[in-house]
Amino acid sequence: MSDESTWPYYNLNLESIAVNGQLLPINPVVFAPSKSGDRGTAIDSGTTLAYLVQEAFDPLVNAITTAVSQFSSPSISEGNLCYLVSTSIDIFPSVSFNFAGGATIELKPAQYLVHYILMDAAKWCIGFQKVESGFSILGDLVLKDRIVVYDLANRCIGWTNYNCSMPVNVSVTLSKDKNFNPRTR
């Protein structure tokens, strides 16, 4: 998270993006936070989609389109880049967001595509939106099937993959010897 006490978001130190394990040619400076708060990468579970600065968006979309080019051609639908697919979404590549300290968010196609049902095929649209400049926001689409932990005291954030259709059991440590489980009270 950013050292700036006035920064209203959880700023992440995103370093790179990879598609099917191949790093994209993106200058990491486009992800770096600025002191003025007008640039960086934020996580926001209240934002539905993901917003990437143009310098990251264009290489990402180009890599995805190249990976599926033998199966589907892209088209623009209501301002979104979409693909008509008659087979499984397994034709789409995995996308990795790589952060400082070795943390990674690995996205399966269902975690970055939005599905629309048509009569004879499925339309899958990229769930990322392009912003001309400023900061990138990783919204709820990227956080799908993850538990996100906001550590306010230490000003940091973490996540783990989780089947969100399952119940969550949360325990809070009060001391070295006692655990408090809010679900059992």
Could you explain the architecture of this structure?
With 185 residues, this protein is mostly beta strands. The protein has a single domain, classed as Cathepsin D, subunit A, domain 1 (Beta Barrel). 10% of the residues lie in helices and 39% in strands. The protein is built from two helices and 17 strands. The strands form six sheets. The protein has a four-stranded antiparallel sheet, with helices on one face. Strands 6-7-11-10 form a four-stranded antiparallel sheet, with no helix packed on it. β14 and β15 form a beta hairpin. The longest helix is centred in the N-terminal third of the chain and has 15 residues. The two termini are 33 Å apart. One of its GO terms (biological process) is proteolysis. This is Aspartic proteinase-like protein 2.
